[in-house]
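Example 9 (inverse folding). The structure is encoded as follows.
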């Protein structure tokens, strides 16, 4: 097989590989469960979301009523 016949696999796109500007568009679209889940994935997303105590309480209540 000649080197010109080698096909490269497409690059994998992950949420963290997207530009930070897109994160600022994505985060407001998440529901309470999504926000809490995303904030637990990394320090970066935790700092991006950083809810205050009232917001965190509202999120937890939303999860409790979601079940």
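The amino acid assigned to each position is listed next.
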């Amino acid at each position: 097989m000649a080197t010109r016949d080698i096909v490269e696999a497409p690059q994998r796109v992950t949420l963290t590989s997207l530009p930070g500007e897109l994160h600022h568009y994505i985060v407001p679209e998440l529901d309470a469960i999504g926000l809490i889940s995303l904030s637990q994935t990394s320090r970066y997303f935790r700092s991006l979301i950083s809810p205050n105590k009232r917001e965190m309480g509202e999120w937890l209540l939303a999860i409790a009523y979601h079940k």
